[in-house]
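Note to self: keep these together.
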Amino acid sequence: MVDPPKKLESFLDITGIEHIAINIRDGKKSRDFYNRILGFPQLKTVDHGDCEITYFSLPNGARLEMFDYHGSNRSPEHHDKDAGLRHLAFQVTDVAAHEALLRSQGIEITLPTCDLPDLNARVLLFKDPNGITIEFCEDL
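Structure:
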Protein backbone atom coordinates (compact mmCIF):
# COMPACT_ATOMS: atom_id res chain seq x y z
CA MET A 1 0.00 0.00 0.00
CA VAL A 2 1.28 3.46 -0.93
CA ASP A 3 1.23 6.19 1.69
CA PRO A 4 -0.67 9.35 0.68
CA PRO A 5 1.54 12.33 -0.15
CA LYS A 6 2.40 14.48 2.84
CA LYS A 7 1.60 18.17 2.82
CA LEU A 8 4.78 20.20 2.57
CA GLU A 9 5.49 22.82 5.16
CA SER A 10 5.88 25.62 2.70
CA PHE A 11 7.56 28.97 3.05
CA LEU A 12 5.67 30.13 -0.04
CA ASP A 13 2.89 32.66 0.38
CA ILE A 14 1.31 32.98 -3.07
CA THR A 15 -1.41 35.61 -2.91
CA GLY A 16 -2.56 35.91 -6.52
CA ILE A 17 -1.68 36.05 -10.19
CA GLU A 18 0.63 38.97 -11.00
CA HIS A 19 0.56 38.63 -14.77
CA ILE A 20 -0.06 36.34 -17.71
CA ALA A 21 2.32 36.58 -20.68
CA ILE A 22 1.46 35.60 -24.25
CA ASN A 23 3.34 35.78 -27.53
CA ILE A 24 1.34 37.40 -30.31
CA ARG A 25 1.39 37.35 -34.12
CA ASP A 26 -0.12 40.74 -34.93
CA GLY A 27 0.30 43.60 -32.46
CA LYS A 28 -2.40 45.84 -33.92
CA LYS A 29 -5.08 43.10 -34.03
CA SER A 30 -4.13 41.80 -30.59
CA ARG A 31 -4.16 45.24 -28.93
CA ASP A 32 -7.55 45.98 -30.52
CA PHE A 33 -8.95 42.61 -29.41
CA TYR A 34 -7.85 42.83 -25.76
CA ASN A 35 -8.65 46.55 -25.43
CA ARG A 36 -11.72 47.26 -27.57
CA ILE A 37 -13.35 43.80 -27.67
CA LEU A 38 -12.54 42.47 -24.17
CA GLY A 39 -12.32 45.89 -22.53
CA PHE A 40 -8.97 45.52 -20.77
CA PRO A 41 -7.32 48.93 -20.28
CA GLN A 42 -4.02 49.22 -22.16
CA LEU A 43 -1.33 50.43 -19.78
CA LYS A 44 1.82 50.92 -21.85
CA THR A 45 4.05 49.46 -24.54
CA VAL A 46 7.75 49.01 -23.89
CA ASP A 47 10.27 48.58 -26.73
CA HIS A 48 12.86 45.91 -25.89
CA GLY A 49 14.68 46.02 -29.23
CA ASP A 50 13.84 42.59 -30.63
CA CYS A 51 10.30 42.76 -29.23
CA GLU A 52 7.68 45.10 -27.84
CA ILE A 53 5.74 44.24 -24.69
CA THR A 54 2.28 45.74 -24.33
CA TYR A 55 0.68 45.67 -20.88
CA PHE A 56 -3.04 45.48 -20.11
CA SER A 57 -4.80 45.70 -16.78
CA LEU A 58 -6.79 42.59 -15.81
CA PRO A 59 -9.41 42.32 -13.05
CA ASN A 60 -8.19 42.06 -9.45
CA GLY A 61 -4.89 43.84 -10.13
CA ALA A 62 -3.31 41.30 -12.48
CA ARG A 63 -1.80 42.25 -15.85
CA LEU A 64 -1.59 40.74 -19.31
CA GLU A 65 1.76 41.05 -21.10
CA MET A 66 1.77 40.65 -24.89
CA PHE A 67 5.12 39.95 -26.52
CA ASP A 68 5.30 41.09 -30.14
CA TYR A 69 8.46 39.97 -31.97
CA HIS A 70 7.47 42.10 -34.99
CA GLY A 71 5.80 39.26 -36.88
CA SER A 72 8.49 36.64 -36.33
CA ASN A 73 6.58 34.66 -33.67
CA ARG A 74 6.04 31.08 -34.79
CA SER A 75 2.43 29.83 -34.78
CA PRO A 76 2.49 26.08 -34.15
CA GLU A 77 -0.82 24.23 -34.21
CA HIS A 78 -2.00 23.51 -30.66
CA HIS A 79 -4.67 20.94 -29.81
CA ASP A 80 -6.67 20.53 -26.58
CA LYS A 81 -4.86 17.28 -25.73
CA ASP A 82 -1.37 18.79 -26.16
CA ALA A 83 0.63 19.64 -23.07
CA GLY A 84 0.83 23.32 -22.20
CA LEU A 85 -1.57 26.18 -21.73
CA ARG A 86 -5.11 25.08 -22.67
CA HIS A 87 -7.01 28.37 -22.30
CA LEU A 88 -7.45 31.60 -20.36
CA ALA A 89 -10.74 31.78 -18.42
CA PHE A 90 -12.55 34.90 -17.24
CA GLN A 91 -15.61 35.12 -15.00
CA VAL A 92 -18.51 37.11 -16.53
CA THR A 93 -22.08 37.81 -15.46
CA ASP A 94 -23.94 36.69 -18.61
CA VAL A 95 -22.13 34.26 -20.92
CA ALA A 96 -24.89 34.22 -23.58
CA ALA A 97 -24.96 38.02 -23.83
CA HIS A 98 -21.18 38.06 -24.20
CA GLU A 99 -21.42 35.46 -26.97
CA ALA A 100 -23.83 37.71 -28.90
CA LEU A 101 -21.45 40.68 -28.55
CA LEU A 102 -18.45 38.62 -29.66
CA ARG A 103 -20.33 37.26 -32.68
CA SER A 104 -21.33 40.81 -33.66
CA GLN A 105 -17.59 41.63 -33.82
CA GLY A 106 -16.79 38.57 -35.99
CA ILE A 107 -14.96 36.68 -33.22
CA GLU A 108 -14.48 32.94 -33.87
CA ILE A 109 -16.62 30.96 -31.39
CA THR A 110 -15.27 27.45 -30.86
CA LEU A 111 -17.83 26.29 -28.26
CA PRO A 112 -21.15 28.15 -28.11
CA THR A 113 -22.68 28.92 -24.72
CA CYS A 114 -23.48 25.68 -22.94
CA ASP A 115 -24.16 24.46 -19.42
CA LEU A 116 -21.82 22.05 -17.63
CA PRO A 117 -23.99 20.97 -14.67
CA ASP A 118 -21.30 18.68 -13.21
CA LEU A 119 -19.04 21.76 -12.95
CA ASN A 120 -21.87 24.14 -11.98
CA ALA A 121 -20.85 26.36 -14.88
CA ARG A 122 -22.10 27.98 -18.07
CA VAL A 123 -19.22 28.43 -20.51
CA LEU A 124 -18.27 29.82 -23.92
CA LEU A 125 -15.00 29.28 -25.79
CA PHE A 126 -13.56 31.53 -28.50
CA LYS A 127 -10.21 32.40 -30.08
CA ASP A 128 -8.13 35.55 -29.85
CA PRO A 129 -6.25 36.79 -32.97
CA ASN A 130 -3.29 34.55 -32.03
CA GLY A 131 -5.28 31.33 -31.83
CA ILE A 132 -5.32 31.34 -28.00
CA THR A 133 -8.54 29.90 -26.61
CA ILE A 134 -10.40 32.11 -24.16
CA GLU A 135 -13.24 30.93 -21.94
CA PHE A 136 -15.98 33.03 -20.44
CA CYS A 137 -17.75 31.33 -17.56
CA GLU A 138 -20.45 31.98 -14.99
CA ASP A 139 -21.91 29.94 -12.16
CA LEU A 140 -25.18 28.14 -12.83
